[in-house]
UniProtKB/TrEMBL annotation:
Keywords: WD repeat. The lineage of its organism: Eukaryota, Sar, Alveolata, Dinophyceae, Suessiales. InterPro entries: WD40/YVTN_repeat-like_dom_sf, WD40_repeat_dom_sf, WD40_rpt, WDR86-like. Residues 1-86 are annotated as: Disordered. This is Zinc finger CCCH domain-containing protein 59 (AtC3H59) (Zinc finger CCCH domain and WD40 repeat-containing protein 3). PANTHER family: PTHR44489, WD REPEAT DOMAIN 86. WD repeats lie at residues 191-230.
Amino acid sequence: MSERGRSSRDGRDNRDRRDGGWTWGLISKTVSGRGRGRGRSSSSHWGHDNRHVMKADALKPRRGSWGRETRDAKGKGKGKGHKGREWRPKTVVRVDADAIGRHCEVRGAHGSSIQAMVMTEQGIYTASQDKNLKRWKPKLSSTGVFELEAELTVPLPDSGHSLLFSGGWLFCGLWDGQVQAFAQDGSVSVLKGHSKRVTTLAVHQGVLMSGSADKEVRLWQMDPAAKTFNCTHAIEESLPGPISKIHVLGNHLFVGGLYGLAMLDLATLKVTKLLPPTKAVTDLLEFQGHIIVAYSEGMIKIFDAEGNQKSEKSLDAGPILRLAGLESGPRVLCGHARGQVSTITLPSFEFKTAFQALPGQKIDSLLCAGHDGIFLIGSQDGSLQLWQRVEGGLPPG
């Protein structure tokens, strides 16, 4: 959620933003199918035969739809309920405490965990452990509710764990250590070097950076003539174990891993600081020249660009898996291991509320569209949800 690159509302100056958030306004202005439902495509790559869509009107709710819990808990108490059924917490479709409502849920969007999401001009891409990359098109229904149509499925050689869109290329990090790169002109390139899953991708000054569970950060540069990417540096010394997230801030690359957070000097490519605590980092988010760090145990910290700690907070919802920056508010969204989402107000960094988005499954990916308070949740079970925070509050239920 950096302040950089916000000078152009139509997104022309923002094309290297890693979350692709600049494209949402473009997509929302060009959505087709108003009043025609979900429709169908002539493409043979839809890949959504088994999907089931659950809708909850965020802008024009049906009578009584807001505030209802959409899935019943199975059994009673903790653990297993009657007849061995697993207990699952109830989910909500409306969060009045922070004016958040759910537009739709696509069950079975993928056959397994949705590990990463990114937005491009063409639509929203999701990568999953089911070895598929999918593209989704948001469409506005006749009731004013956004729905998601799967319009393309790309088989991957292994499960997908990270996504990045930059410079006309879509990069997908895989379980086996490869990075698949797809160009808008149809070119495909394969980046080989990592030995384990590629968990995080970033771009800085035209250099692609990848972090992996093999404890390495690799730097890649493109050969424009051949449209291939060559590894120029492989960095492992003093990094904090298997890597979960990287992010460039100021003159440093912040590297989050199993054993904490390291600061890598971009000029020397050497680690200059290891920031306490030495606990597993799950995600990083930039805001106004600071880095927000999520730890798996349920704590978040804020550091400045020089690594000085400014604030910290523990969340009652427990282990944090994902962070995302919502421009509406603005807010930090924290996705938890038991299906909750916590919201934190910025810049005060005060906890606002928490709600149950998923019935006990992990929130394995979060994506903020960068427009109109829209955000998406990718579930451990392959479900995909679209939510919105509405400035001024939700309509009456």
